[in-house]
Amino acid sequence: MLLHLLVLAPFVAAILMAATSKEDPKSSSRLAFIFGLAFVVLSVMLIAAGNKATDPIEWFRIPGCKGPVYYYLYSHGLGAWMVFLSTALSLVALVSARVTACKNYRNFAIGIFSLMGAMNGTFLAADAVLFFFFFEAMVIPAAILIASYGGKESSKAAMTFAIYTLVGSAPMMVALWYLLTKADNSLLLSLAVALQSLPAGAQTAILASFLLAFLVKTPVFPFHGWQAITYAEAPAPLSAILTGAMSKAGVFGFIAWILPIFPLNMSIVSTMMWLGLATAVYGALMALRATDGKKLLAFSSMSHLGIAVAGVFSLSEAMLPAVLVLLVAHGLCAGAQFFLMGIAERMAGTRELDKLGGLSGNSPVFSTLFGALGVMSLAVPGTAGFVGEFTVLLSLWDMGPFAALVMGFSMILSAAYMLRFIQKVIFGKASGSYDNGPRTSGLEGASIGIMAVLLLVFGFHPAFVTDSLHLFDEETVEQMNDAGKAADGEEAAETDEDADEDELPQAMTPDEIAQLDSSLKANGFTDEERKSLITQVVGAEAALALESRVQAGLDAEASDDAKTNDEALNKEASND
Amino acid sequence: MTQLPLWLIPLFPLVATILLGTIAVISSGSKKGPAEGIVGALAVLFPALSFAVVAVLAFGMPEAGIRETLCNWIDIPLFKADIGFMFDGLSRIMLLFVTGIGTLIALYSTGYMHGDRGFARFFAYINLFLFSMIVLVLSDNLLLTFLGWEGVGLCSYLLIGFWNKDLSNCKAANKAFIVNRVGDIGFLLGMLCLVTVGGSGILNYDALSAFIQMILTGGHVEIVLPVLSLTGLLFFFGCTGKSAQIPLLTWLPDAMAGPTPVSALIHAATMVTSGVYLLARMGSMFALLPVVLDIITVIGMLTAFWAAMAGLFQNDIKKVLAYSTISQLGYMFMAAGVCAFDASIFHVFTHAFFKAALFLGAGAVIHSLAGEQDMRKMGGLIKKTPVTACVMIFAFFAIIGFPGFAGFWSKDLILERLFVSGPMGPTFYVIGLFTAIITAVYMGRLIILTFFGEYRGSKESEEHIHEAPASMLLPMVVLAFGAVFAGYLWAESIGVTFFSDTLAPVVGSAQAYAATLHPHAHVNPMIFAGLGTLAALLGMFIAYKVYGSARVPAAKGSSAPEGRKATWTFFFDYVHKYVGIIPVQVLAWICDVVVDKILQAAQWTIGAIATILGDGATVVQVRKVRLQVAFSIAGVVALVAVVLLTGGLI
After folding, report:
1. pLDDT of B77-131, one tens digit each?
2. pLDDT tens-digit map of A225-238
3. How many residue pairs bridge chain A and chain B with CB atoms within 8 Å of each other?
4. Which domain holds residue A548?
5. Domain limits of chain B?
6. For A285, which of A162, B246, B444, B591 could close a Cys bridge (C-beta 3.0–4.6 Å)?
7. Does A563 contact chain B (CB < 8 Å)?
8. CA atoms of B110 and B122, how far apart (whole Å)
9. Gap between the Cα atoms of A452 and A329, Å rounded
């Protein structure tokens, strides 16, 4: 129920918003606020509820495909947190847009709610076609909002954004359709199984087209052409949503779709990792030279997401929680920074860094928030960003010291550009007289303040985030399995290949599994860990992922050994 | 007696930060600002409470120390870290002077910052700094230490740029933070190196010592030596950032842009010594790494000498003290480099007193001259501000190592340990001693230019010179007492070894291990004491001869040293510029102007091709019914064919 509400209700809310009057922004903003708040509450409930899945409902059949397309939602920690980001940032955007004398608040709210629904759908879809549907659907409200509420070059920005991202995911559509003609249905695991039977060349082609869609969405260098202009020209509240929640769809796609479906080989993994790192450094360097405040934030966002992508493809065992914390931290922090930059633009009438300055004298509350969030984006320990970046650094260190060094370099650069940004905007003397637009409203300041507090809370207690992460744990797998059975009883034998470790896809014999199992056991994994590992292996049969995990396991074991030795020695010493 | 919980110590400054921060933000809208009495009282009371807790704990501390794990911090596969505190001999000493001097300087600041619009904000930052510093020294693992480590860097940034209307202050603050960030990456990577060797548990200091003990008893030193050496180097790189050693020393002189109490607290007494603390804390590891230790000694030696030379040429009274701090930190690193961790911490301790006293004295001078920092416009102030002058002269005797004063005991100890450290020992000793002479010269110059001779400022300003208020004088006098007597906690020649005894449980084993490598003959400490005294006297004599009678050149506007001497961080500013900043700028330029343009061109090309093709396609969009129908039929046929070929609709 929760899942349906989160995905469908935003569209209903959008329709209801249409009933309010255009001429009365006050009442429509109140209604929008109530809706927005309700969605945030729902998303928090979703995180608290843990893993959940709806009953799959047959939606339609694509000609030429064996199985139907389901309307089927499920949530795991990762998706739930992304939904939280999308709802929370939408709420703040609705609050913030209230002060920005919007030409037509009602339509803005309609756009935001449809965007939110599409994003939630993307993060919660369990069916590949459904995922793709929402993945594409996100673009439309966003582009319309940019075109109608953006800055001077807004229509150009909207066109660039829409065409770039739609073209980027067009190959994915073809690849998905081709894959569906081979698969039993469009659920994750049958896709993975279907992929195994294809020749290697076709596999690579499909992988490339999937990767392209997510690379463009994130964006990763060199596919970032749409990003800076879009973020700069979009109205600031929308930029916050775009960077805080929508750009996460790319990274989410890597984790939730690429890794389970495709057997990745080493060269692809390391290419992706280095692309991520290149993005991190490139974004940071571009941010150093940016003269437009919003572009600077856009490049900063690109740099941080590059780190997240690199983290994903480090494939270490710590990768998933590390990247999740990083994404949550970045979503809150970058989102809040865009809101603040929007306020600065509103107050000063410009977003040119050289024309800004001295805001700390005019509006101390604003500049306190601005400075605090700027510092938080530097991943200072005690904030969520630090936990994320440190653990990602740890994952990268496993891939080699040089990768970690490059990430360290981008962290230094981030300090350089962010401090320059803070200095240019709030310190010094105002270089010109300002228009004195509307200042920070109480509600706006409070909501951004809450985001800052959340960053601190997650920084000191990241378990709130990491504990909710059971992407591949037993319960979900079984739940999905049961759901599959319930959906089409007569085809149970076929669909059962979903993640049941007894009925295996042809690619891996039970003997191999048993062998793997015993070797894992020998390495000292607990039952639960083994089971989850094996499900992953069966699902994706990513040879490399396996290797790296076992390697990681060995490392962990080695350290455990060291520890036990240690303890033994201590005991001996005390006995002596 | 039930023990006080350790978390009380950092809690007090944290509460004060939140309170004062709230006051600062709430009152920011009003014209007048919050009442200084209440803010000042809060700002002094909470650090004082924290000091009281430390004092109570310090007296009741068992030999092995107190350990306390609060809660879990990070818990993910492959990595676990707790928030835990450790109160032992080393953190006891550090905490006592951090909270003690912190309280005194907060008191001093209530006078110094009187009437400043950012009064509450200033004390919020100071308390946040104290919180971070306490966490740094109290934590029981490296990750939490890193929290304090970056926390103090952040506070330093905030306080250097406190007067943020002036962009040069902001630039100094940015420089401090970025240079520190470079060092911090070393710290981070060092932690990762350690994790590679021994799992995430090894970040705990106790576990680290146990691990070192294990490889020692197991005889596996050779196996882990390469990785540990790398680790040690990375950590030391982190220390050079925080403690302003070569090559990352350039930020500290610029950091003098902050209010003077900040320079006293952060850039002299506490934060900059955290590098020395870290080396001592990880002493058991560093003791195993001869190469790293040699590097530390040489870097420390070069820095000490270099900064002392630079100190000779400064005209800004605070800059002299800044270089002097760098130089003294160099001494501490030299000591740490020969595994004399207790001596280095002892110098940290005494240095905290006399350098804080010097800075506060300089602050009082600046305050009385209404903001003048150029020593060439001072002179003869001993008549006008006798208390300040006395405090500074006592501290001066301490820093040059005049017999009986605090610096004498600690510096002497370091020089002695250097001499006996091994084959290179005498060389280190000679350079250390020579640096001590230079120290006496530049400090003598400071005292002479400031307090003796004739007043060189304008006539009008002379009438306004006044002694500082009592709230400023009291902390200075207390610190001056410290500068005189702090050394008697470890005066071996009169039989007091309290200080080394209290540190022995922490650093004793490391030093014992190092001592086995270089067995040394017994030397007579009196010779060293004599030579040290001689160095101080010689330096004072030179200073008197050169600066006592010479005409001081008139100041020309800026207080910066003339000519190219403005860069007397000895070209390290240039090195940073050409090695760090310019390559990055060039890279950024390439990204922005070359790569980005190429990508845009590619985009444009594809877009243009698409447009052209689209234009071509419009040719068939004409009003020819037959053609249109033909297209439609072809389309339907194609669709049906696809459907049939791929398996039909169901």
Report:
1. 778 888 999 998 889 989 998 999 999 999 999 988 888 888 888 999 999 999 9
2. 888 888 888 888 89
3. 183
4. 502-575
5. 181-254+283-550, 580-645
6. B591
7. yes
8. 10
9. 10
